[in-house]
Amino acid sequence: MTATQDLAARSRAAVWHPCTQMARLDAVPPLPIARGEGGWLFDTTGRRYFDANSSWWVNLFGHSDKALHDAIKAQLDTLPHVMLAGCTHEPAVRLAERLSARTGGALGHVFFGSDGASAVEIALKQSFHCWKNRGRAEKREFVCLKNSYHGETLGALSVTDVQVFRDAYDPLLMRAHIVCAPDSRRSTEDLALAEMRELLERRADHIAAVIVEPLVQCAAGMVMHGAGYLRALRALTLEFGVHLIADEIAVGCGRTAGFFAWDQVKAPWPDFLLLSKGITGGTMPLSLVLTTDDVFDAFLSEDVARGFLHSHSYTGNPLACAAANAVLDRFDAGQVEEIGRQAQRMADAFAPLAPRVADLRQRGMILAFDVPEAPPRFAEAFHLKAREHELLIRPIGNTVYLMPPYLIDDATAAFLAQAVTATLNDVLA
Ligand SMILES: *Cc1c(COP(=O)(O)O)cnc(C)c1O
User: Fold this and answer.
1) Residues 400/371, Cβ–Cβ less than 8 Å
2) What is the pLDDT of residues 184-238, one digit of tens each?
3) How far is the CA of 285 from the centre of ligand 1 (A)?
4) Ligand 1 contact, 214 CB (< 6 A)
5) Hey, where are the domains in the chain?
6) Angle formed at CA 296 by CA 293 and CA 302, multiple of 5 degrees
7) Distance, CA 119 to ligand 1 centroid (Å)?
8) How far is the CA of 363 from the centre of ligand 1 (A)?
9) Does the beta carbon of 213 lie inside 6 Å of ligand 1?
10) Residue 355 Cα, ligand 1 centroid: separation in angstroms?
11) Which fold has domain 69-332?
12) Ligand 1: which atom is nearest the Cα of residue 118?
């Protein structure tokens, strides 16, 4: 047995892989990855794969980024961890201040979690508890969009409308309102807003919050909408007195061109804004819930139980905060403008593919297209074939997408377009 087969077999025996039907592990064996450098991952035999999905949308500047590693190493030798109840530390304070400043102070309070789903849980609890503290405990319902994805713990799954993830646990979940989603492919923005208005007119007295992924519903299959929808949605939530939660776990940190997706919306800030995934550039687990003075003040009291008594063991971990501060350093130094140039290279390289596929679409560094006449098990077949073309990519159903690290020069853009086209040729042959 080669070392590579050995690692895959040991993994099959001992590791329960996420988001995987383990019975199909022989058909789709996990790649044994030994190391990463820039956009590339290298397996134990030395073969390389371009990480076109940024390792599930977390990596920003490539693997083994020196500035990020140096920031973590320096923090490691100073203070790897201390609890954030009863203690505080410079990396957390600095990160909170810098994120708040990026909202012009509108979202001036930052709560720390460990991953995206925990940030969603925190925002749902804070929204409900805020209304309860104001004597409005009947506002306990949540609204999400059709095909929304907000994570897989029970609260997050309750506002997630992806059947494969949700159906098995349906009896355990809260009942959320699921409203028509805007979709640039079908011009459904007006319909989506009309449905939202109708629901809020009828039910706002019982609704705590609407949760939405601004600009791109990623796990839904890179379903995109315009800033106009979000402006109108913000106006509706203000008119009817319900919170708006902007889940920027995937779309934040430059993916959609602004640092925040909301930077492009030009409307009042949402009541909650969530970050995770890219915020540490793919190095450490961390999530953040940003909120307003208005929400924060509703918890201030001599009564302990009116406070937000929520925590995770690694809340505000200094190593993760140090990595996030190093990510913000890059954005302070012109990263958004650089992303704009790289996104244009992607657009130019993929334009020739447009006649062969459906709905080639792009928002910043997220590029996607659909393959309408795809054969059965298309996503799996595409993923496997792509490996032969040095590409690590996992379509969602019939939607092929790229969400690469911010390392796209002309040669890399050309390589990606060529590898995707070659894979498509193989799979549709
Ligand atoms: C990935 C994701 C989550 C969940 O984050 P995890 O870190 O996987 O728990 C929540 N919302 C959105 C929009 C996501 O893309």
Assistant:
1) yes
2) 999 999 999 999 999 999 999 999 999 999 999 999 999 999 999 999 999 999 9
3) 12
4) no
5) 1-35, 69-332, 340-375+383-402+423-429
6) 125
7) 9
8) 18
9) yes
10) 32
11) Aspartate Aminotransferase; domain 2 (3.40.640)
12) 9
Beta bridge partner(s), residue 212: 246
Per residue in 251-269, pLDDT (tens digit) is: 999 999 999 999 999 999 9
Q: In sequence order, what DSSP letters do the residues of 239-258 get, joined into one string? A: HHT-EEEEE-TTTTTTTTSS
CA distances from 87 to 98, 284, 296, 311, 315 (A): 20, 21, 19, 13, 11
Distance (Å, rounded) from C-alpha 428 to C-alpha 297?
57
Of 171, 138, 94, 142, the C-alpha closest to 326 is 94
Tally of CB atoms within 10 A around 70: 12
Helices 410-428, 378-388: inter-axial angle, 10-degree rounding: 130
Q: Is the CB of 224 under 6 A from ligand 1?
A: no
pLDDT digits (tens, 9 = 90+) for 367-423: 999 999 899 999 999 999 999 999 999 999 999 999 999 999 999 999 999 999 999
Q: Is 219 in the pocket of ligand 1 (CB under 6 A)?
A: yes
Judge whether 278 and 109 are in contact, CB under 8 Å. Answer: no
Please work out whether the CB of residue 115 comes within 6 Å of at least one atom of ligand 1: yes
- Does any ligand 1 atom lie closer than 6 A to the CB of residue 280? no
Residue 161 near ligand 1, beta carbon < 6 Å: no
CA 21 to ligand 1 centroid distance, Å: 20
Instruction: Give the position, in ligand 1's atom list, of the atom nearest the Cα of 251.
Output: 13
Residue 263: CB within 6 Å of ligand 1?
no
Share of the chain above pLDDT 90, in %: 96
**Mean pLDDT, rounded, of the chain:** 97
Question: Greatest CA separation found in the chain?
Answer: 69
CA-proximal residue: ligand 1, atom 10 (nearest): 150
**Phi, then psi, of 140 in degrees rounded to 5:** -135, 10
Domain 340-375+383-402+423-429 sits in CATH 3.90.1150.10 = yes
Q: What is the CA radius of gyration of the chain?
A: 22
Residue positions counted in the chain: 429
Whether residue 4 has pLDDT greater than 90: no
Q: Could you tell me the distance, in angstroms and rounded to a whole number, from the CA of residue 116 to the centre of ligand 1?
A: 4
Q: How confident is the model at residue 1 (pLDDT cuts 50, 70, 90)?
A: low
